[in-house]
Amino acid sequence: MPIRNSILDEVQYQVSRYLSQHGEALACSCQRCQDDVVALAASQLPTRYSTSFQGHFLIGVELQSKQVQLDILQAILTAIETVNRSPRHDPNRGVCL
Ligand SMILES: [Zn+2]
Description:
Shape: elongated
Structural class: mainly alpha
Bound molecules: zinc ion
Low-confidence stretches: none
Helix content: 55-70%
Oligomer: single chain
Strand order of the largest sheet: 1-2
Largest sheet: 2 strands, antiparallel
Number of domains: 1
Distance between the termini: 32 Å
Mean pLDDT: 90
Number of helices: 4
């Protein structure tokens, strides 16, 4: 099994879930901007690597705790604000694909 960063998996999941419910939160919905939100949010959180299915599962349980979920949501909201202020897609195209 490859080394996985469980936080990244969780952030990816939470960002897509959040944006499916609050699509207007992100000024641009292109893949680049969504990826930037995931990358920014994940880099604010402590990385949790796992090398086995068991480790991945145990970290997954830990990630479901209320405090960790709040930390993840806060990081995602901060990342959305950052991307909205300065989207990194090509400004001449307005919205990138
Ligand atoms: Zn964009």
